[in-house]
Design brief:
Blueprint lengths: L6 E4 L6 E4 L9 H14 L1 E4 L6 H9 L19 E6 L25 E8 L7 E5 H6 L3 H8 L2 E5 H9 L4 E2 L2 E2 L4 E5 L1 E3 L6 E3 L6 E4 L4 H15 L5 E4 L5 E6 L3 E5 L8 E8 L6
Parallel strand pairs: 2-3
Antiparallel strand pairs: 1-2, 3-15, 4-17, 5-15, 5-17, 6-14, 6-16, 7-10, 7-13, 8-9, 11-12
Bound molecules: succinic acid (SIN).
Length: 277
């Protein structure tokens, strides 16, 4: 892939790249948009440094890639229903972002295509985020396992994670105490690249449709161990005003909470995606 407007430096041979040469607070022209889009598709997660954006500018950047997704349960900052606050400090008992490997909101019938996280305040050191390629995870399976998984679907539940995380909040995106759930293919095909990616995660997946509990648990636990293979991942060290933009269709991520009682704070917007197939 060649770029005219941006510089793209891979973080690992498998996933992740740092992008320089763009101010995300400014409207993106077509060429700049196309290059950022191509970098995302190629590297699955891209990182930007030294970006100062208001919430409006953050949302405008996200909207360049599609309609913004509304989270089913997370409280939003006043006047910004499309924004999720990512925050941890000395009073936290857990972090807003997932401490376990996950894909964002895979319990929505059409989960976000991507998420854009802008951190305004970071601990020093600590609070890194790990990203893993679900293409690499799928590719490393044996042909026999690929064939077994190809016909299987799994249930994903927002309640499994969000009810405990956000408590009883009454009116949610889909109605009073209504949490989405969805039956998703275990192996999905990326709508742009046509490549196959594993699509189960510890946070939202509950069970494989049609299997007994012990059968489902055995396969899911094997896949969760496999997904965490270090060679499929990269690790991003945040600085103040860094931005990460991940393709939620072919990656999982895990936020490390190794910085208590320090503060880590920022905002995430997500872009609507399509129904996995
Ligand atoms: C998230 O899971 O969306 C947040 C990741 C992070 O806090 O690094």
């Amino acid at each position: 892939m060649s770029y005219e407007r941006i510089a793209v430096t891979p973080l690992s041979p498998v996933i992740g790249a740092e992008v320089e040469g763009v101010d995300l607070a400014q409207p993106l022209g077509n060429q700049m948009f196309q290059e950022i889009h191509d970098a995302l598709i190629t590297h699955q997660v891209i990182f930007f440094r030294d970006q100062t954006m208001t919430l409006e500018q953050h949302k405008a950047f996200g909207r360049r890639f599609g309609e913004l997704h509304i989270h089913p349960a997370a409280p939003a900052p006043e006047g910004h229903p499309e924004v999720v606050t990512i925050h941890a400090d000395e009073n936290s008992t857990e972090v807003s972002g997932g401490q376990q490997w996950h894909t964002d909101v895979s319990a929505d019938v059409a989960p976000p295509m991507g998420s854009i996280l802008h951190l305004h305040q970071v601990p020093e050191p600590g609070g890194d985020t790990l990203f893993a390629s679900m293409y690499a995870a799928y590719e490393a399976l044996s042909d026999e396992m690929k064939s077994l998984l190809s016909g299987l679907k799994a249930w994903h539940s927002s309640e499994k994670r969000h009810k405990a995380r956000y408590g009883h909040r009454g009116e949610l995106r889909d109605g009073v105490d209504t949490y989405p759930k969805a039956l998703q293919p275990i192996v999905r095909t990326h709508p742009v690249t046509g490549k196959k990616a594993l699509f189960v995660n510890t946070v939202f997946t509950t069970h494989i449709e049609g299997l007994k509990k012990n059968e489902s648990d055995a396969i899911l636990n094997m896949l969760y161990d496999h997904i965490a293979t270090p060679e499929f991942s990269c690790r991003f060290r945040w600085r103040e005003n860094s931005v990460a933009f991940w393709d939620n269709r072919c990656t999982q991520h895990r936020a490390l909470w190794d910085y208590y009682p320090e503060t880590r704070h920022g905002y995430r917007v997500a872009v609507c995606g399509d129904k996995p197939f």
